[in-house]
Amino acid sequence: EHPFRPSKDTEERLKVIPKFCFPDPKDWFPSSDLKSETFSFVLTGEDGSRWFGYCRKLLPEGKGKRLPEVYCIVSRLGCFNLFSKILDEVEKRREMSPALVHPFMRSVMEAPFPAPGRTITVRSFLPGAGDEVMELCRPLDSRLEHVDFECLLQCLSVSHTIRVFASLLLERRVIFVADNLSTLSKCGHAAVATLYPFTWQHTYIPVLPASMIDIVCSPTPFLIGILSCSLPQLWDLPIEEVLIVDLCADKFLQEVSDEDEILPHKLQAALVQILEERSEILSHEQSDTQGDTSLNSLVSEAFVQFFVEIVGHYSLHMSVTEQGQRVFQREPFRKSHGSRTVRHFLHCFMETQMFAGFIQDRELSK
């Protein structure tokens, strides 16, 4: 509705949104019974900027077979809980009458977007209930906000989770397969979150529309999710050197077969131990501190600790030139690690775009 002239790139992205809202052609069929589902997608522009799509798929009230609807909010900001809360409200209003959705969304659009750590209130009228006040808060640190490690660890054994992590670290091609949209999108986001403080720089499509399945033939790194019903099409395509992970059966449908050899063994064992014993650690910590250590923070800390052991000494190898520029000394950094297996791993990891991006940010920061 905004009177702006979208760029060509923006227009392309807007055109493709319906495909991502209904990734499977069967989604367009009328149905008499459908549980509402929340999922998300990510669109990456030519300049690398990302749009996040937050979707709620539901069946409108009524009798007999009806067409499903998807309500989708697109934002440049990853802020899952805030948008989920808005979509809850949209669903509640849609059940009463479609006419109630638009005025509510207008009042949301007119409210200022909360700054990190802040809460805003949105007032909206609901027939029979009068004025309703809704609080929308944005977390200070949103890196774990969209992340559900629980779902990933329920779908995959610890050893499979670690192998997926290792494959992503070397920027390989990974395909997740599952029966439903929410499992695909939750597991995709959780897998990307294991890489923090590094950022996945490549193609990332939590749920790939069936009509775009040819993308999996791309020779560049990607993390892509496909619905199980697209598997027959997948097997018809010429795909090589791809790790294909069945999230519903906890097994690899195809692998490169060195996935267990990528990470330095001692550090891999330490990571495995924390993830295997996560329930015991959590119950122990909660009884000790009366605090609430969440599974998300425990898992994230375990992966961060892995990176601290491997690259935590990077700052000792930043030198400053006479012009005041920070420059990273690659070889001294790699050779300075005491462990031969870590040095060998670094030899591969330092070639990734993830590592290059991380170091470039550090060189540019004051």
UniProtKB/TrEMBL annotation:
<dbReference type="Pfam" id="PF02141">
    <property type="entry name" value="DENN"/>
</dbReference>
<dbReference type="Pfam" id="PF03455">
    <property type="entry name" value="dDENN"/>
</dbReference>
<dbReference type="InterPro" id="IPR043153">
    <property type="entry name" value="DENN_C"/>
</dbReference>
<dbReference type="InterPro" id="IPR037516">
    <property type="entry name" value="Tripartite_DENN"/>
</dbReference>
<protein>
    <submittedName>
        <fullName>DEN2C protein</fullName>
    </submittedName>
</protein>
<dbReference type="InterPro" id="IPR001194">
    <property type="entry name" value="cDENN_dom"/>
</dbReference>
<dbReference type="InterPro" id="IPR005113">
    <property type="entry name" value="uDENN_dom"/>
</dbReference>
<feature type="domain" description="UDENN">
    <location>
        <begin position="1"/>
        <end position="366"/>
    </location>
</feature>
<dbReference type="InterPro" id="IPR005112">
    <property type="entry name" value="dDENN_dom"/>
</dbReference>
<dbReference type="InterPro" id="IPR051942">
    <property type="entry name" value="DENN_domain_containing_2"/>
</dbReference>
<keyword id="KW-0344">Guanine-nucleotide releasing factor</keyword>
<dbReference type="GO" id="GO:0005085">
    <property type="term" value="F:guanyl-nucleotide exchange factor activity"/>
</dbReference>
<dbReference type="Pfam" id="PF03456">
    <property type="entry name" value="uDENN"/>
</dbReference>
